[in-house]
Amino acid sequence: MTSTASSATAAKDTGPARDNESVHAAAERISAAGESRPRPGRDPVNLPMIHNWAEALGDGNPVYTNAEYAETSVHGGLVAPPAMAQVWTMGGLHPEPAPDDPMRAMTAALDEAGYTSVVATNCEQTYHRYLRHGEHVAVTTKLEEVTGPKRTGLGEGWFLTLRYTWYVDTEAVAEMMFRLLKFRPADGDEPARPTPEPAGDNTADESDPRTGSPILPAINRDTAYFWEGTAAGELRIQRCGRCGLLRHPPGPMCSECGATKPTHLVACGHGQVYSYVVHHRPPVPGKELPLVIALVELDEGVRVLGELHGIDPDEVHIGLDVEVFFRQVDEQVTLPCWRPRTEGK
Amino acid sequence: MSGVSGIASIAGIGATEFSKESGRTELQLAAEATRTALDDAGLDPSEVDGMVTFTMDTNTETAVARELGMGELSFFSRVHYGGGAACATVQQAAMAVTTGMAEVVVCYRAFNERSGQRFGQVQPAVAGAATSAGVDNSWSYPLGLGTPGAQVAMFARRYMHTFGATSEDFGRVAVTDRKHAATNPNAWFYQRPITLAEHQDSKWITEPLHLLDCCQESDGGVAIVVTSTERARDLPHPPAVVQAAAQGSGSDQFTMTSYYRDDLTGLPEMGLVGRQLWQQAGLGPQDVQVGILYDHFTPFVLVQLEELGFCGRGEARDFIADGAVELDGRLPINTHGGQLGEAYIHGMNGITEGVRQVRGTAVNQVDEAHNVLVTAGTGVPTSGLVLSAE
Ligand SMILES: [Zn+2]
């Protein structure tokens, strides 16, 4: 049995990069160490875990959970879903990495060389046999291959191929090839850096015209109503469920009365430009420049940012009457945008 | 006067060269700047027991301490909000010294901001972060407003509309800074002054900001040594006394995008810093001879002059046009060239210039610079200092 899930990460070769030697040396050393020591699973293969897993995945096959039925099957008794192989050796909520874990050693070497970001690219599992309830499983990891540096859409990076093998005693029962990309982000930006603050660069060269995927908002419980609204063609403004305060940007607790039961109203979508900019450079992923961005004061009294379209940038002015429209960016995200108001007020 | 006023002083300053590609790690820059600052203070690394930096700095206090061979540290602290942290690092140090938590505290900031991660470019990750800051940024970045320059430009447009200020009014700040940088050998723009016409001709970044309204991006490190004024008197340089040190965050404060307050023409967080500084120091704007005003983007220099009480609301353009911020003016500003002219080290190089002015050793020395005002990043929760000669 083989199942493959892969996400394409386009890559082409690039010339020698700095730190290549240290990476190659680490790769050689770690691969040469071979398989890590077997790490036993926390619990034997067991029914409660299988029940939960099968239910979550919607797999109703009774051979996994119904002993009576399983007796009569080709297995002659209860077995575990093969795809659960990895489940049996998961490290729990606070996993303690094994000291000889080659993935950990190799990613540390790449972090050191500046390839600090990571993305899984593909994973392929092979199952040699079904596991029976009560069996004890252990897993080993081996670094198979490190290739790079490659220039990818995400940035320059190295592909790591690891092989996981699950054993019952000395018998290999399942294997997994796992490949990931450790990369230096294309614009030198670290995903986990704190909020940056300011600089232009008045020595700037002409910035390279860079396109990319549009920037998507972080959406959480406090803000989901807004983005659900834009997707439905509504500009929603948070309204306190107790005192009625209108607020944008929203938050979980009313700053006036302290209530934590926000509701919202649907704005009429009309307002006036309170301030605006015309952005020329640097490039903004997913946007065509120059771009007018307006801070609009809604008739309801709150301000909302958005792109302003349908007007020559030179014609824009503070006080301009605008109305909202919506632009879908991807499956999840639709942005509110502005355009000059056409109908009478 | 407040509890910290006068008790702590800056005894040493140090910096690396300012460049566009340092060719070494950020840790090395931090270590070099710290060593230079300690040498300047006449102190041994083993005498340091406190360290302060920015939350944005990539060098931990422990890493810098190891490189310098420091011993035990009894105080370490970090300040958030980008360049708004600059003067607050010295405030932290002064509080630690005043309360006895530490005796010698090093404040440092080092980065390869030009050759490494450039803050001036759009950073998609800051909008996606699963933090309150990421959610805040989600109201601007995805909507196309994704650079600090663009975020400041939104304020600048409203300020122009309200007070009739023009792009030339912003440009005069750049011309002044570059004039000062032109005579500072440590400045990136040494011997390269600009004219107002060149400012006007420079390309648009985000209207109404031209390229020459925006500060540089730089590689480099700066370190500052703070100890008690009493101890500083026995060290090689005259103490630059921390006469006042304050932080400020306003109501309805955002980081760079406080667009939802009633008014969009002020920086109330800087007004708060100013009120505290004057109160702590027992001084007013009339008592200050030099202003080192954070200048990542020119429009906020005008707003700071107003918030700090050097002129009335909307009057900064006249204050500047009358020559008040020139070397022979009422309040010379950014005598090292500022971040527009010298280097962008997140405001820390402004503090070292304040110290040089108080010591009387600046390249563009102002006569009888007894009290110097230094400010930190604008558009963000910020901080400020009044440094004084004894
Ligand atoms: Zn309320």
From TrEMBL, chain A:
Residues 1-46, 186-215 are annotated as: Disordered. Residues 268-327 form the ChsH2 C-terminal OB-fold domain. Residues 39-175 form the FAS1-like dehydratase domain. Residues 1-11 have a biased composition (Low complexity). InterPro entries: ChsH2_C, ChsH2_Znr, FAS1-like_DH_region, HotDog_dom_sf, NA-bd_OB-fold, Thioester_dehydratase-like. Pfam families: FAS1_DH_region, OB_ChsH2_C, zf-ChsH2. Residues 227-261 form the ChsH2 rubredoxin-like zinc ribbon domain. It comes from the Bacteria. This is OB-fold protein. The lineage of its organism: Bacteria, Bacillati, Actinomycetota, Actinomycetes, Actinomycetes incertae sedis.
From TrEMBL, chain B:
It comes from the Bacteria. GO terms for molecular function: acyltransferase activity, transferring groups other than amino-acyl groups. The keyword Transferase applies. Residues 23-202 form the Thiolase N-terminal domain. Keywords: Transferase. Residues 259-381 form the Thiolase C-terminal domain. This is Acetyl-CoA acetyltransferase.
